[in-house]
Design a protein that fits this description.
This protein is an alpha/beta fold. The protein folds into two domains: 172 residues, 3-Layer(aba) Sandwich (Peroxisomal Thiolase, Chain A, domain 1); 149 residues, Peroxisomal Thiolase, Chain A, domain 1 (3-Layer(aba) Sandwich), CATH 3.40.47.10. It is 33% helix and 26% strand. It has ten helices and 13 strands. A five-stranded mixed beta sheet has the order 1-7-6-4-5, sandwiched between helices. A four-stranded mixed beta sheet has the order 8-13-12-11, with helices on both faces. Strands 2-3 form a two-stranded antiparallel ribbon. α3 packs across α4 and α7 packs parallel to α8. The radius of gyration is 19 Å and the shape is globular. It binds acetyl coenzyme *A. The site of acetyl coenzyme *A has 24 residues, from α2, α6, α7 and β12.
């Protein structure tokens, strides 16, 4: 039987670094507060030529080069994003045009910070049905355009970037073993971002807050830890895999305290968890594929290793996936 495997990875980060010292000049905060509460030291901010689809395209080209697959041979192109270049057409269509993926059908997928995991699951379902398919999946975000740079509660947390994978079917390799995905729309008000110029009647009372990201940080923290712990426990139990059999865990990079709590509760040592939140902050749907690409290029992923992914984000959406590299 064919399984969905990763044929290549790529990532692209904007050039401009925004440090905690830079933020100290913009809002009432300090490097010490940000570092101890979040673990974030710098984040990247998109500039000219670094729009969502442009970052996505550069990451995609690197993943295609590693996979040895031509853009024109991609059958399906998905961009996971909550900050698309335009409302219509999708960022995926912009990427398609930019890289020449002329044979693909293309669409965006929005599951907030869980978008990449949701996208992997969708791609896996297509490839399981048609193993000769080649899928390009990109997580790409330009959150800097949508955070309120006067709100110290949120602006310190986020950054821009893109990561991509080329996926295909292969016999004799483990590939995607299982995924557990969840949503709970009842909790949307704890983390949301209204549309620009929206006349959304649900948000009339809050309209002066504009279209920026809104967050009830403490509640998000609490739910995120519990939800990811449960999702990981579920996928490991289903596959009868013990924590010490995991080669590397690549979690959504939201915040070091969330990750520390998660590691504690799962009993997974820090050296088995890939962490780059210090460099890029929270890049939402891009965080897992950026981390995956870095781990891959550093030679941390070995054939046969069990790789564990988990995420949590607005919606709420969350989930876990187990993959054999
Ligand atoms: N600098 C200095 N002080 C600040 C800052 C800042 N940047 N931000 C908030 N504060 C202040 C608050 O105003 C508050 O002051 P007060 O006591 O005078 O009112 C004080 O610090 C404590 O604020 P809390 O919100 O209680 O701080 P907490 O310890 O909960 O940390 C944080 C806040 C970091 C946002 C935390 O709640 C958190 O990590 N939540 C998860 C949020 C997250 O990761 N969201 C990303 C999207 S979801 C996802 O990707 C998983």
């Amino acid at each position: 039987m064919d399984h969905t495997v990763v044929l290549g990875t790529g990532s692209c980060l904007p050039d401009r670094k925004l440090t905690n010292a830079d933020l100290e000049k913009m809002v009432d905060t300090s490097d010490e507060w940000i570092t101890t509460r979040t673990g974030i030291r710098t984040r990247r901010i998109a500039g000219k030529g670094e729009q969502n689809y442009q970052l996505a395209s550069r990451a995609a080209e690197k993943a295609l080069a590693m996979a040895g697959v031509e853009a024109a041979d991609i059958d399906l192109l998905i961009v996971a994003t909550l900050t698309p270049h335009m409302m219509m057409p999708s960022s995926a269509c912009f990427v398609q045009a930019e890289i020449g993926a002329t044979g693909a059908f293309a669409f965006d997928l929005n599951a907030a910070c869980s978008g990449f995991l949701y996208g992997l699951d969708v791609a896996d379902k297509y490839i399981t049905g048609r193993p000769d398919m080649k899928v390009l999946l990109v997580g790409s975000e330009t959150l800097s355009a949508r955070v309120n740079w006067q709100d110290r509660n949120t602006c310190i947390l986020f950054g821009d970037g893109a990561g991509a994978v080329v996926l295909g079917g292969e016999r004799g390799r483990g590939g995607v073993l299982a995924s557990h995905l969840f949503s709970d729309g009842r909790l949307w008000r704890l983390l949301y971002m209204d549309s620009p110029e929206s006349l959304n009647p649900d948000l009339v009372q809050e309209s002066r807050k504009g279209c920026h990201l809104q967050m009830t940080g403490r509640d998000v923290f609490k739910y995120a830890v519990r939800a990811m712990e449960d999702a990981v426990a579920g996928v490991l139990a289903e596959q009868k895999v013990a924590v010490d059999e995991i080669g590397l865990m690549i979690p959504h990079q939201a915040n070091i305290r969330i990750l520390n709590k998660l590691m504690d509760r799962l009993g997974i040592p820090e050296e088995k968890v890939y962490i780059n939140v210090d460099k890029y902050g929270n890049t939402s749907a891009a965080s897992i594929p950026i981390a995956l690409d870095e781990a891959n290029r550093q030679g941390l992923l070995h054939r046969g290793d069990k790789i564990l992914f988990c995420s949590f984000g607005g919606g709420f959406t969350w989930g876990s996936m187990l993959m054999q590299w």
